Amino acid sequence: MLNKDNYVPWSSHIIRYARSRPNGKMIVESIENGPYVRRMIATPGEPDLLVPVLESFHEQTDEELTENDIKWMDADDQAIQTILLGLPEDVYAAVDSCETAKEIWERVRQMMKGSDIGEQEKKAKLFNE
């Protein structure tokens, strides 16, 4: 569970745990670089028609996903769950609107960075008194 005073050890623990899971590399990739992005598939045009039809593109459909693509998408879901399970309720509530593991990871990091600054200011005031 995330201790607000120890973000760095917590983040290291989460990454190590993610790596130990099946598809661990994919989970860490999702946390650090974002989710799987569906490819754009080219549909050939028909230039010989009376009104030529140019090549067009469409987003990859579920039927066009490969087994590896599906693994990446599953890893994205696992990455989100891995992070969320390690968060206290107040932090979870703050990141609940995030849609990707990377978004959650960044938001938690920003929140903890802010609390680190607050702690540093408190310590500085104590030493200066």
For the CA atoms, what is the radius of gyration?
A: 22 Å
State the major sheet.
Answer: 2 strands, antiparallel
Widest β-sheet, arrangement of strands: 1-2
Q: Kindly estimate the percentage of residues that lie in beta strands according to DSSP.
A: 5-15%
Tally of individual helices: 5
**Helical content band:** 55-70%
Topology pattern, helix = H, strand = E:
HHEEHHH
Oligomer: single chain
Return residue spans where pLDDT drops below 50 for at least 5 consecutive residues: none
Number of domains: 1
How far apart are the termini?
Answer: 34 Å
Number of strands: 2
User: Based on CA inertia axes, which overall geometry fits?
Assistant: elongated
Q: SS-based structural class?
A: mainly alpha
Overall mean pLDDT score?
86
Keywords summarizing the entry:
two-stranded antiparallel ribbon
